[in-house]
Write a structure and sequence with these properties.
By secondary structure, the protein is of the alpha/beta class. It is built from 10 helices and 10 strands. The chain has one domain: Rossmann fold (3-Layer(aba) Sandwich), CATH 3.40.50. It is globular and about 55 Å long.
């Protein structure tokens, strides 16, 4: 390759990188939920807490900024963590969904959990999805279902057992994980991105403080000041009073059926984040679908981002995933 060709290639790569940076900068962002902001609040109340640091463990390989879907010019990315050692049958996959009220947050917040799970024999992906500052519900659902299909389509490449895919989510991400777990292959929520030949159904759900019923007053009764819309109103583009049917439609509790995935609920000590949980579990029991609940006492809402609570939650999560994915 001559000097002129190398220069042209370098210019092309630089242009592509600049274009990607420019597109990312154009996406409206809400930075109210970040590790630093959250740490400031949590440490004021729990001075013994410590932020869980992202660190790739020995024996795990990381692959960042993988494009898993496109919607026109909009690229959607995930970060992949996988065991270096190959498995004859592939490892179970886990897609991790960050929280932030469907408005804020970012996928890198879930790197520590993804890295820890990868060290335990899972191929994990922290997935970006479009938030309410960019697109209203159900666009974020379309994105995440495309991520599930992407994982199945690329199972051979990344040593994934396509029969065993779980979703994990925290807060808003927990609600979305439960939604994916109850609406597998429901055409209305599939969207058109990715390879539609592959299934979006998941085999296990981990819901960390994610509500299951938007119509519960803990969520639906917040919009009393028009100038301060709730996270739900921002996600749906309308308050519960304005569009109650939309809030019902988006509630995972309303889709529990015989194909619903087993669910693990790990909750803080704050009841508002349990909305619809017990009723959902009752529906699952009637269908003989497995579930677990663990409430960690005296915890702030974003407990999963901090020691010592991360460690306790992680133990519940690995045990549940092993039981429902590895041991079946």
């Amino acid at each position: 390759m001559n000097t002129k060709t190398l220069l042209l290639l370098a210019v092309a790569l630089m242009t592509t990188s600049l274009d990607a940076q420019q597109k990312a900068a154009e996406i409206p962002r809400d930075t109210s939920f970040t590790i630093n902001n959250t740490a400031t609040k949590v440490l004021n109340q729990y001075p013994h807490a410590r932020v869980v640091v992202a660190r790739v463990p020995a024996g795990v390989v990381a692959l960042e900024n993988v494009i898993y879907a496109k919607d026109g010019d909009r690229e959607l990315h995930l970060d992949l963590f996988a065991p270096m050692k190959k498995s004859a049958n592939g490892y179970p996959g886990v897609i991790l969904i960050h929280g932030g009220g469907w408005r804020s947050g970012y996928r890198q917040m879930e790197w520590p959990m993804a890295q820890h799970l990868a060290a335990e024999g899972y191929v994990t992906a922290t997935a970006e999805y479009r938030l309410s500052t960019e697109a209203l519900y159900p666009v974020g659902v379309y994105d995440l279902k495309a991520a599930v299909r992407w994982m199945r389509e690329h199972a051979s490449k990344y040593n994934i057992d396509s029969r065993k895919i779980a979703v994990y989510g925290c807060s808003a991400g927990g609600e979305l994980a439960a939604f994916l777990g109850t609406t597998g292959e429901v055409k209305k929520f599939e969207g058109t991105m990715g390879n539609l030949k592959f299934s979006s159904r998941v085999q296990a759900v981990v819901d960390i403080d994610g509500v299951l019923d938007f119509t519960d007053p803990a969520e639906s009764a917040k919009d009393t000041i028009p100038q301060k819309p709730s996270a739900g109103k921002s996600w749906f583009g309308a308050s519960f009073k304005e569009k109650p049917d939309l809030w019902r439609e988006a509630s995972p509790i309303n889709y529990v059926n015989e194909n619903t995935a087993p669910m693990l609920f790990v909750n803080s000590s704050l009841p508002r984040y349990h909305a619809g949980r017990d009723e959902t579990i009752e529906k699952m029991k009637r269908l003989n679908i497995y579930s677990e609940v663990h409430t960690i006492p005296d915890t702030p809402h974003p407990f999963w981002l901090f020691h010592p609570w991360f460690d306790e939650a992680f133990g519940y999560i690995v045990t549940f995933l092993d039981k429902n994915l590895k041991n079946k």
